[in-house]
Write a structure and sequence with these properties.
With 237 residues, the chain is mainly alpha-helical. The chain contains nine helices and no strands.
């Protein structure tokens, strides 16, 4: 665990290298950009189906008069798809960089008014190390994503969990969707310290829009399920 932030953001897998001259320009919006504008900046066109010899026009006639026309269309699709994938990878990198930059700025600002933040981060490091050893390196994935991307008071949530390690240990043992619900409660709690009437948290908005069972991906749920099953098998031995 970094002393500056609770969890490292992003996948352990290194991004594929892309030659600078071949990488499309995808702008990274700054932290002051409207949320919807930031989301649009990372939208990449969906993949299009590859041409086939069975393709037809609207009137039902063959789309390609001969095999050479089909090969030309397929070659053009291949180039377009390669460009789209490059744009997709670059948009992902830009998104991660923007998230990390905003989070780093938030941590710096939070430190100014919370001098005990660094001490709390240092004290929780052994707890995190034990959790990762017992439950796997991805045990904090949901906490990481929530505090850096979804929370209204992400750094304060990190500080609270670092200062209350028993609560952290309890939350990370829950299924991902329930982790999200519990993190939302912490978010509201730390937010109420600075406002008597906090706005609905990002968690509440997310749960309303997608439902608790879909709040985070199935991969996180499967990871938790596998971990729970392994713990049950260990207890039976």
């Amino acid at each position: 665990m970094d002393e500056n932030v609770t969890i490292v953001v992003g996948s352990d897998e290194q991004p594929e290298s892309v030659a600078k001259t071949d990488t499309p320009e995808v702008s990274t919006p700054d932290a002051d950009t409207d949320v919807e504008e930031r989301q649009e900046a990372y939208v990449v066109a969906p993949p299009q189906p590859a041409p086939t010899l069975e393709d037809t026009n609207e009137d039902g006639s063959d789309k390609y008069a001969n095999y050479e026309q089909f090969l030309a269309a397929h070659s053009e699709w291949t180039m377009q798809e390669a460009t789209r994938r490059l744009e997709e990878r670059q948009a992902t990198r830009n998104h991660e960089q923007a998230v990390n930059a905003r989070h780093a700025e938030a941590v710096t600002a939070y430190r100014q008014t919370n001098p005990d933040f660094d001490a709390a981060m240092k004290s929780v490091k052994p707890v995190v190390a034990k959790l990762q050893k017992a439950l796997g390196p991805g045990v904090l994935n949901v906490v990481d994503r929530y505090t850096t991307q979804d929370a209204d008071h992400g750094v304060a949530v990190i500080h609270h969990l670092a200062a209350h390690p028993e609560e952290l240990k309890r939350i990370v043992r829950l299924p991902p969707a329930l982790q999200l619900a519990e993190l939302g409660k912490v978010d509201a709690l730390v937010g109420s310290a600075s406002s008597r009437r906090p706005s609905p948290s990002a968690t509440a908005r997310k749960l309303q829009s997608v439902g608790i069972e879909n709040a985070y991906g199935s991969d996180d749920f499967q990871e938790w399920k596998n971990r729970r099953n392994e713990e049950e098998r260990s207890r039976r031995r």
